[in-house]
Amino acid sequence: MRAFQNRFEKYDLVIADEMGYISFDKEGSELLFAHLSLRAGRKSTIITTNLSFERWGEIFQDPVMTAAMIDRLTHQSYIVNMNGGSYRMKETKEWLQKQQLT
Fold first, then answer.
1. Measuring CA to CA, how many Å separate 71 from each of 11, 14, 18, 40, 74?
2. Which of the two residues, 7 and 74, has the higher pLDDT score?
């Protein structure tokens, strides 16, 4: 476990894409919290999600730990809210239009 933590701490950037797509059990939530806490304020982390922070309790199921994780992740962070249409849906519509022309 400690070897993984050491390796995880060394990465300049960690990206967690689609956070919340799948819920975490208690142990998984605690491990993620521990690993992200090690990086907080020292290394870069990017997290993408389609859930607002208010809904993160649904992912991690522990309100105290969820609040602590959000606190650490948002401290001295850039938050980019990208509301809008789905880029994949736009590409699919364009692809379908091209298919109809051929």
1. 21, 18, 19, 10, 5
2. 74
Residue 74 burial (10 A CB sphere; 0-12, 13-18, 19+): exposed
CB atoms within 10 A of CB 56: 19
Q: Which two tokens stand for residue 29?
A: 């939530």
Quickly count: other Cβ atoms within 10 Å of residue 66's Cβ. Answer: 19
Per the CB < 8 A criterion, the answer to whether 67 and 98 are in contact is no
Tokens of residue 24, six digits: 């975490």
Three-class secondary structure of residue 78 per DSSP = coil
Contact 43, 13 (CB under 8 A): yes
Between 3.40.50.2300, 3.30.870.10, 3.40.50.300, 3.30.2170.10, what CATH number should domain 2-101 receive? 3.40.50.300
Please state whether the predicted TM-score (pTM) of the whole model is above 0.90.
Answer: no
